[in-house]
């Protein structure tokens, strides 16, 4: 969930898959009040998958809930 200073909001369900070298993002859902408040990217580094979230405007508040599965 993200909210920016203009009180715009966004909630996004993100799926990340990786092969140990490259990570890809898929969106289960992406709902926002008028425009995207945040953009996402992912990469694999040192055997870790990193999710990056960047606010479109300064002062964006972000709340993240992590859920993952290992096989």
What are its keywords?
two-stranded antiparallel sheet, four-stranded antiparallel sheet, 6 strands, single chain, 71 residues, mainly beta
What does this structure look like?
The protein has 71 residues and is an all-beta fold. The chain has no helices and 6 strands. The protein has strands at 2-3, 9-18, 23-32, 38-45, 48-55, 61-62. A 4-stranded antiparallel beta sheet has the order 3-2-1-6, with no helix packed on it. Strands 4-5 form a two-stranded antiparallel sheet. Strand 4 and strand 5 form a beta hairpin. The radius of gyration is 13 Å and the shape is elongated.
Produce the secondary structure layout.
Blueprint: E1 2-3, E2 9-18, E3 23-32, E4 38-45, E5 48-55, E6 61-62
Antiparallel strand pairs: 1-2, 1-6, 2-3, 4-5
Main beta sheet = 4 strands, antiparallel
Average pLDDT for all residues = 90
With strands numbered from the N-terminus, the spatial order across the biggest sheet is 3-2-1-6
H/E element order = EEEEEE
